[in-house]
Amino acid sequence: RPKVDLFLFMFLLFSISSVFTLIFMTYSGEEFEFSFDPTIGLFGWINSKWDRLPLELFMAIICNGVGTTGYIAIMKYFDPVVVTMVMLMEP
Hints:
By secondary structure, the chain is mainly α. The chain is built from three helices and no strands. The model has no long low-confidence stretch (mean pLDDT about 85).
């Protein structure tokens, strides 16, 4: 982590985890398709209702973006064991 830019690292982390999730869904027999279908489509989240848009933006930007990026960023200043313990205490 110290030699890689934070945003490049996060991009790679989310990209690789997306590929592994797709592979897992394929081999586990989970029904999905590359469509905008809200039930089984991989892009079904785009068809969200307007009343849920603030919640989805909050989950994407604050929880995933700031939360995960914050944990990775503080690894530069704290021992990884400390960061791991803090992550485990999270609800």
